[in-house]
Amino acid sequence: MRVLAAMSGGVDSAVAAARAVEAGHDVVGVHLALSRMPGTLRTGSRGCCTIEDSRDAWRACDILGIPYYVWDFSERFKEDVVDDFIAEYAAGRTPNPCMRCNERIKFAALLEKALALGFDAVCTGHYAKVIENADGSRELHRAADWAKDQSYVLGVLTHEQLKHSMFPLAETPSKAEVRAEAERRGLSVANKPDSHDICFIPDGDTRGWLEERIELSEGNIVDVDGETIGTHPGANAFTVGQRKGLKLGRPAPDGKPRFVLEIRPKENTVVVGPERMLAVDQLRGIKVSWAGLPIPAVDTGEEFDCMAQVRAHGDPVDARAHVERDEDGREHLVVRLIEPMRGVAPGQTVVIYQGTRVLGQATLDSARSLERPDLAPAR
């Protein structure tokens, strides 16, 4: 097969490309230039897609003896990931930019260009597995190493995209083995730190970054009864579950910390309350997509058993889910959690599983407790 290897400049993508070459595929390496500041340098393990990463990707391709290109996707990345991130926060939601990047850049824009150029598949260093069934259909599953499993951030992939996705690290039992393999192959990235945090906010200060891009205005912080107990510099800079940075002038009656329970952007209000009220047991999602062919219950609307996960490294919990359709035929995913989750916010992504199989995902429109009364309006 003709394979386009997406080379991030890290050890995972380098070893994935090496395995694709070793398997006999005709491999070409490509690094995506996503930054609008190409001179940016990585700081430790923060950030990615920098000029340093581009050079590391080139060195890996040179060792592997494969062609190497840099494709400028910075404009598309700004529009589809960065601008979306800002817009979601401005609307009082908590987005996951890695999901958007995988959905709109790595497995939409990149795959689209790869297919147009005659490639059969895109290879990445993600830890996840694609299984082909006897009928030719594809399923997305967790990787062998659950500690490094990245199937959550790939939950946005469609059946058609899975047909052209290659994850050579799927069966690798540990990251240590990947690094050891890179060392044996003479790849200079063998001991390079993993990137973390949001790649376009390399210093990790999400709130400070947002304050420069979202018009913030002072508003009230209210308790669960709607009583004003403080002020904030702008509701959009807060997120559900947040404890630090509230700067309330008086403690709660029981002396325990307060947490952000709800963001009301239209009112520019932040609602806070006790930690126990962060627990939710019903999630409703929009922008639903299915990773592979949907299971029969999706079409019938029947409730089905599943596991729900709302964070890349979060623990999945037992759940029951079903699909509702509105008058325009749009699907809405309703997930009832058997065990409540804490600090779940609109804008986050819920990915549902059966066993190791990823069924699909949705962007949360609401997350609430069926036992908790609605929070009082501000007064």
Automatic annotation (TrEMBL):
MF annotations from Gene Ontology: ATP binding; methyltransferase activity; tRNA binding; tRNA-uridine 2-sulfurtransferase activity
UniProt family annotation: Belongs to the MnmA/TRMU family.
GO BP term, example: tRNA wobble position uridine thiolation
Pfam family, one: tRNA_Me_trans_M
Protein name: tRNA-specific 2-thiouridylase MnmA
Annotated binding of ATP, by residue: A6, M7, S8, G9, G10, V11, D12, S13, L32, G125
Residue ranges of every copy of the tRNA-specific 2-thiouridylase MnmA-like central domain listed in the record: 209-273
InterPro entries per UniProt: MnmA-like (IPR004506), MnmA-like_C (IPR046885), MnmA-like_central (IPR046884), MnmA-like_central_sf (IPR023382), Rossmann-like_a/b/a_fold (IPR014729)
Keyword Metal-binding found: no
Subcellular locations according to the entry: Cytoplasm
Keyword Transmembrane helix: no
Known EC number: 2.8.1.13
Task of the protein: Catalyzes the 2-thiolation of uridine at the wobble position (U34) of tRNA, leading to the formation of s(2)U34.
Annotated source species: Arthrobacter subterraneus
